[in-house]
Amino acid sequence: MNAGTVSTEYILRMEDVVKTFGGFTALHQTSLTIPGRMVFGLLGPNGAGKTTLLRLVTGLISPTAGKLTLFGGLEPGASAARAMIGYMPQSLAIYPNLSVVENMLFFGRMYGMGEGALKTRIDEVLETIELSGRRDDILANLSGGMVRRALLGTTLVHKPKLLLLDEPTAGVDPVLRIKIWETLRKLCDEGTSILITTHHISEADRCDRVVFLRSGVIIGDGTPDDLTRQYQADDLEKAFVVATKEGVAT
Ligand SMILES: Nc1ncnc2c1ncn2[C@@H]1O[C@H](COP(=O)(O)OP(=O)(O)O)[C@@H](O)[C@H]1O
Ligand SMILES: [Mg+2]
Q: Hey, where are the domains in the chain?
């Protein structure tokens, strides 16, 4: 990794990015700049293009047109960029027959971390996700909420600068959801930038900045307060409804 290439100017810049699958446009011409050190939310219903946008950032898929750069100028697929990203996909990409620690070792080694640094870091992450006491349990024996936390843990092992979280709280009970948000806020305070997708308005309300996404088009962008004011709504939920209606009309 070349730290010299890391810029604090922006974490992600999309310039006229389009993504099509066959004849279907999942993301229409999109331009967006996300500064670092914030919790940035992508709010939209199923099929809005949230996962597509995150996958473009990981470099797993490439734009059909336009340009997407990370950390002040890196291509998404570049190894320097990948080393700085932690990606928690929507489906549980984790090994049920391995313990919490073994899962973390697997991901840490995949990122080429040395064993000493890895062990120290795993202890730190286990504290953060509050799973120190269950570190040697195999995932198949843990509750759904604990598995979610373990999954978050595997994305944190290599100390990513940018965390991409695809609906990390889907199907999670309210208590755990609050806990996960406390963890995210702490990570952000420590300098991690977070790009999170959700279809929960209450979660979007906790973000520093939110983009409304609908049918592959950005129909709103600002702080939750800005968006509420912009649409002359009482709260973010009503702002989203108004934005959606205006999006249909245009
Ligand atoms: N690999 C793919 N091939 C074809 N269509 C896709 C593919 N990935 C996503 N899509 C389509 O693109 C649209 C946006 O999908 P997605 O990004 O998963 O939305 P979201 O995450 O907001 O639910 C959907 O209509 C989906 O069916
Ligand atoms: Mg999705």
A: 92-159
